[in-house]
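Much of the work behind modern protein science is quiet bookkeeping, done one molecule at a time. The protein below has been through that process, and both of its lines are reproduced in full.
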Amino acid sequence: MFSSLLETARNSPFRGPLSQVSCEPAIASEQGAMAAATAVAQEDSCEFGSTKYFALCGLGGILSCGITHTAVVPLDLVKCRLQVDPEKYKNVVNGFKVSVREEGMRGLAKGWAPTFIGYSMQGLCKFGFYEVFKVLYSGMLDEEAAYSYRTGVYLAASASAEFIADIALSPLEAAKVRIQTMPGFASTLREAWPKMVQNEGYGTFYKGLVPLWGRQIPYTMMKFACFEKTLELLYKYVVPKPRDQCSKGEQLVVTFAAGYIAGVFCAIVSHPADTVVSKLNQDKTATAGSIISKLGWAGVWKGLGPRIVMIGTLTALQWFIYDAVKVWLRMPRPPPAEMPESMRKRLEAEEAAKSK
């Protein structure tokens, strides 16, 4: 504060009784001070691509995935029961009615603890490592190649991140499905975990890992690549002004819209594998092949309607929370991908040569 006051005094047009009055330096000084104040106010809390940046991305992932998945536990519970026992639970409405009649309203919260812990861990790895791999894979390419093949970078980075994230999620997902779909097995995570270890050993927690990869990796690839491309297209064709001219609130609305569009595609792509995972965790003697043979093509799509609603809303809220955390923590938020200047000039030169 004192240094800025001294600087203002030095640049004052009235700094000495014999000095000449000069208005222009004063105006320039005032503009410079305002620019400096704006720069300080908008200063990022960390450097893009730094360890702190990736750690804060992981924190955003914990909040976005842990909160949203826990919020929709009742719908997830009914969806799982529709998948594993379609004769008893005819549809979503009937599933809620039967569940409430048998276990009361509190029964709809079954599995909230493994859901919260498991998806918080998954979110940490999913979002944190996605940002790591996106920077890593982009850095392996030159500027023009990174732009041209950016969708490939999004797909590769998200697949790599989800591979790690599912290893963290699998044990809690197995416990959640047991609690939700096996009446009388356990009501809480503290009860289910030791029972699963005692009866089946630690291997049971990773029995569904491969089908989980089959569900989550395509889902996450679609979730991130579709989101990134949708965001890019919305700012290009729908939003009437560039992203850097939008307010933080306007940017978050666009983020929510792009997230919901991505979520619908995610639900459709990953649903058959989701059904197989639910059945595997319910029946310890089953295999992925036997479940697919038994259910048939139509059977693996049971519960798609509620899953579209659930995953569409989930994905939109996750991206909204994740982006809000970045805003709140003053993290650098690079704008949507833009064509490098060198590439633009080269393409313009090629077009001009063709037109001659």
User: Anything to note?
Assistant: The two ends are 61 Å apart (CA to CA).
